[in-house]
Amino acid sequence: MRLALTIQTPEVPVQVPVALLSGNLAEKLAKAARMGAEGVELITTQPASLDISVYLEQLGRNNLQVAAVASGGMAFAARLTLLHADPATAALARLRLDEMITLAAALHAPVVTVGSFRGRAVVDKERSLAELTQILRRAGERAAEAGVRIALEPLNRFEGDLINNVAEGLAFLNELNHPAVGLLMDTFHVNIEENSWTEPFRQAMQAGKLFHVHLGDNNRLPPGHGLIDFAAILASLHETGYTGWLSAELLGKPDPDTAGQETIDYMSHLMKVPT
Ligand code: LER
Ligand code: MN
After folding, report:
1. Which of 9, 48, 142, 250 could staple 216 via S-S, CB 3.0–4.6 A?
2. Nearest ligand, CA 214
């Protein structure tokens, strides 16, 4: 398991509350490496506009990998969702999903995340879920061709009405039935929707579907500032053989740099403790 910090790329027009680190791209990458992260998760709103050679050069210089290409800014900062009621907006969102897959492949990122970017149920839930199934199955095809995977994130009930927990996520994926589409489990959402720290991660792993993990405490502060039992979560991830990323996606409080450093310090300490 490796630790990553979520940052937003320079073209994102507003500050995303859960994006960490201050400064320009070069400064953010240098800070992430200095803090002890092995990767960064990139929140982008214009995936096709990023200069791949610049990113590869700066990532390489800092010995960092891209843990994920994140769609978290699409709904928040660009008002784009895959299930948007306006067909032109939904079409643009689907184009951005394709562009994120292309970007992830170019930057050797293992996953593209789909959280709030999916949108909400438009008319009725069954129809929206069926439409989301079609969209993500097609995205799974494209992702597989590009050597990338799609990680769908169960969201807490206040942020989403389609797929709130691991059971709903696995049932949805069972129906969707594509090997390149799996789950992103976010500890902050787990805290609200699940009844165990360990079982959601274990179930997703046993189904072969845990593709990515987001870290944030129950108050969305860095791990260690709230109530979540990260040691128990790490133990279940370790026992079930999870080797992917633990990516901090949390509030930049008291400031985005301190939150990043505190996350790395707390988690790397826990990861050294024998389980
Ligand atoms: C939002 O709460 C979140 O967890 C993001 O990963 C969703 O896009
Ligand atoms: Mn998340």
Report:
1. 250
2. 2
